Amino acid sequence: MNVQLLGVGGHFSADDQYHSNMVITADSGAKILVDCGRDVKYSLMVCKRNPTDIDAVYISSLHADHVGGIKGLAL
User: Fold this and answer.
1) Of the candidates 49, 62, 15, which has an alpha carbon nearest to the alpha carbon of residue 73?
2) What is the number of structural domains in the chain?
């Protein structure tokens, strides 16, 4: 298993910290996005991750810094 942090910020953090989303890559190769803040498309790009490679999304709470980017990810 591999865990890649995509950001370290919260709702009121500086823009360059991104929200605290992460990608977990299971031993099977499945990629799970944990949380999906509104800036996830940018943090994925910076970390050289393709949104189409995500197999599942786990949302830990319904605050904007955890779920605000789900619509953009789906599109």
Assistant:
1) 49
2) 1
